[in-house]
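Box 3.1. Reading complex inputs
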Amino acid sequence: MNIELSDEAEEYGRQARRALGSAGGDRLAQQAEADPHARGALVDPVFEALGAWELDPRAGSEELEAGAALCRSAGWWALAYPVAERLCRPRDLDVDGLVVIGPGPPAAPVGGLRMAWAAVSLDGWRAVCAASPLRGPVRKSGYVVGLEVGSFERGGQGDVALGLVLPCWTLLGMLDRAMSLTRAHIAAREQFGQPLAAFQGVQFQLTDAEVERLGFEALATHALWSIEAGRADAVDDALALRLAAIEAADTVFRVCHQLHGAIGFCDETTLSWVSRASVPLRRLPLNLAGTGAALTRRLGRRGLSGLFGPNDEPSPTLPALRPERR
Amino acid sequence: MDFEMGVEVEALRRELRDLVAHHVPSDYLGAFTDDPADLEMAQGFCRLLADRGLLCPAWPGEWGGRDASPWEQAAVREEMWAHHEPRGAQYMGVNWVGPTIMRHGTREQQGLHLPPIARGEVIWCQGFSEPNAGSDLASLQTMARRDGDGWRVSGQKIWTSYATMAQWCFLLARTSREERKQQGLTIFLLPMAAAGIDVRPIATMIGPHHLNEVFFDGVWVTDADVLGAVGDGWRVVQEVLSFERVGIARYARCERLLIWAPAALGAEWDDLPEDLHGRWARMVMHARRARLLAYRVVDLQSRGQVRPGDAAAYRIAVTRLDQESAQVLMDIIGFAALGEGEGLRFRRAVEDHWRYSISATVASGSIEMQRILLARALMAAS
Ligand SMILES: Cc1cc2nc3c(=O)[nH]c(=O)nc-3n(C[C@H](O)[C@H](O)[C@H](O)COP(=O)(O)OP(=O)(O)OC[C@H]3O[C@@H](n4cnc5c(N)ncnc54)[C@H](O)[C@@H]3O)c2cc1C
């Protein structure tokens, strides 16, 4: 058993976090919001220096784990940039990145970048697509735009798990940050003559959130390994991770907002930026209900692999995808 | 990364499943039932495991183990708990009584106690809780007073699991009153056959023959029965509790029952309300999550490290899983006939799981204590 990312990957993640911090840290998200179309140019030099786009997560465990660590660091700074999606770029298509799409109208947080994308459905149908222009303030849209999807072809089965798992690592970085900010806040903020952290009601909310974050982290590592090991049920593992990730995010952000009080909703606190940045990742490609439904369908009577599963039952086929064109 | 436990652990797991399949009746639901045959079966099964070196594989060879890795020990815990703990009460001796005596006992105490535990011949009980000392354990009142070259123990313990069948008690008592209540506490290894001990069973909804009151009336113990230093009991107890926290692989039983459900229901599975299929899938995910949180603790253990926050987080997650999975499984059996054969066995196992799960957040210390521990670890790190 070896249940942690490699030391090299962890070190790469730390370097990335430092580099993004030096390049502006929390200000990067604010600058991007002020000028959404410049959001790529803001971070290009950092990723260039980190060699980020030379990483090929499909090439083997080292690069996959480094990619995950990079996503987590991007999440820490609530970076307004689709790092995971770009890392998922299929090498056999002439595109800049890949997104997974759910049964609803195809959409992804890739607006304002002038890039070509591939979209893959949960059952592995893949198409080249173009992002629609950004509409309205990105404060509201979270850079989510519709995708104009070309014709679907088979061949994306190997993309689905990766496309689901790496964005979860970005979300994990956001949860890391939200918890860290909240711990600092409840240690510093005093009411009734003592720090909030002294109240048991506050402590218990914090622990509930932390258990969620830790559980999410454990499943994120497992799902990454499942891809790395080329396991047949990597998509099941990815969906299980996604369900845990959304549940964890819901709890963590609810608790972190609650413990920040009113100040947590203000632009002047970092929590509000991280919280807003997390929303598209929690809703797309499948929200909580959608992820639960997809996982349930896939598991059928089999369950997940583990000590006693999966049961020896055929895996149910997913309904064929008929994505809406936009 | 590698989430496979490796060929050795898998071989061990197969061996254990084989033994369970051949020696544990398929309707076995634990040693503490109204049928004395269940306890007898458990005693016999322990000896069988011991003969094959499977009762305490992670113990050092010197004490009857074979220096197996913490992962092998984890697999034993998983297989045993998943199959309703066919070791009966013995798991306590293996999980924490033995290891604590290894660390703090004299050579004589080790020689006296470790071999019988390793052979599966002896049952221990834990005398910590008292009527007025539950979560606030350190406020306990049971006194051991100096009397010549020994001690006289007087007082009352409560919620003492397995006390009716135990030969030994791992007792925490006060030997002096000091400035802080955590000081002046001492551990005694006390024979339950000693004069002046009265055990009274408590009827409970969790199952028969489990909880008891134990009264001590001037029970005589000698210095040879003191574990560790006089007055150092609190520190030893902290270690006991941290062994105990990872001791029960509750997730393994949850996973086994969840994965069993579709087969047990047969065709009726497809007729369940759709939302119940969804809740089942979610629980399957949560069973994996709790298992992976346990593995974090084992992983640290295998590198000789301890992070108290991680063990607490695991226990919070696994006790929640215990209760939520019990709820989902109870809902599932409510929709199916399950009147005979495998279906009936499944129904009984689920009902037993539900009854027992109610106490999961209280037994081994209330879950609130774990939350306090985790909060402390979190705030110390920031
Ligand atoms: C199945 C089972 C087996 C057991 N076996 C043994 C055994 O073998 N040996 C033994 O010594 N004991 C045993 N116990 C006892 C167990 O350790 C205690 O029940 C436990 O420590 C809680 O103590 P209490 O029941 O007195 O509850 P109390 O301490 O009275 O607490 C009641 C509730 O109040 C809340 N609470 C208490 N203090 C706080 C606080 N500071 N902050 C927030 N909330 C708080 C918690 O919700 C707690 O559950 C067993 C218990 C059970 C259920």
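In summary: The domain at 249-381 of chain B is CATH 1.20.140.10 (Butyryl-CoA Dehydrogenase, subunit A; domain 3).
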